[in-house]
TrEMBL record:
Signal peptide extent: 1-23
Protein name: Uncharacterized protein
Gene3D superfamilies named in the record: RlpA-like domain
InterPro entries in alphabetical order: Kiwellin-like, RlpA-like_sf
Cellular compartment(s): Secreted
Keywords: Secreted, Signal
A Pfam cross-reference name: KWL1
CDD domains xrefs: DPBB_kiwellin-like
CC per GO annotation: extracellular region
Family the UniProt entry places it in: Belongs to the kiwellin family.
């Protein structure tokens, strides 16, 4: 009898645990990992805060990003979306380049959401300043450390990669451009 009532108690307890499908309890877990390989001679180009994969080091990959709310935490980074800029290739949403004087951004894979945020605007906030910026590109958190990605690691899953126009609009002094904690929401 004792055993049965203990079992019943366990069932009651388990049914009280929130379902993992509940958005508030969603956690973004790695989808895999990539091992860094030694880039061929001369293939590792490190500039402007970009670093090549370290041979043997494991890098987690993510198909998801943290859940989006009215104040989604992210890391703001700086990039050029112009031809010949750091980005290298045209933006994924429209296969075009964009002036660094326009407020455009790229989002980590989960937030990019298979292109469903393309041309949508998000509101970026930091230090009491706000700017609207348009999504035009993805920062891939699912692959990296290969020729296609300049032997650089997969991106983090919480990146908002922005033009200088965004950094200017947030009032960040140029000397501090690089990485910044921000929050964002869909506009
Ligand atoms: C590095 O950043 C500077 C300043 O934003 C830029 O002028 C330069 O073109 C960048 N380097 C590359 C290789 O894109
Ligand atoms: C995003 O903002 C730009 C510039 O303000 C505007 O032209 C565009 O229509 C907006 N996109 C959407 C989907 O509202």
């Amino acid at each position: 009898m004792k055993k049965i009532s203990l079992g019943a108690l366990l069932i009651v307890l388990v049914s009280l645990v929130p379902r993992s499908s509940d958005a508030r309890f969603q956690v973004c877990k790695p989808s895999g990992k990539i091992k860094g390989t030694k880039p061929p001679p001369g293939k590792c180009v490190e500039d402007n805060d970009s670093f090549c994969c370290i041979p043997g080091k494991l890098y987690p990959t993510y198909k998801c990003s943290p859940p989006v709310s009215g104040t989604t935490k992210a890391i703001l980074t700086l990039n050029s979306f112009e031809k010949g800029g750091d980005g290298g290739v045209p933006s994924k949403c429209d296969k075009k380049y964009h002036s660094d004087d326009t407020p455009v951004i790229a989002l980590s894979t989960g937030w990019y959401n298979g292109g469903r945020r393309c041309f949508q605007n998000i509101t970026i906030s930091s230090n009491g300043q706000m700017v609207n910026a348009m999504v035009v590109d993805e920062r891939d958190s699912t692959t990296g450390c290969d020729e296609e990605h300049d032997y650089q690691p997969p991106f983090a899953n919480n990146i908002v990669d922005a033009t200088r126009a965004v950094w200017k609009a947030l009032g960040v002094p140029m000397n501090d451009w690089g990485e910044l904690d921000i929050t964002w929401s869909d506009s």
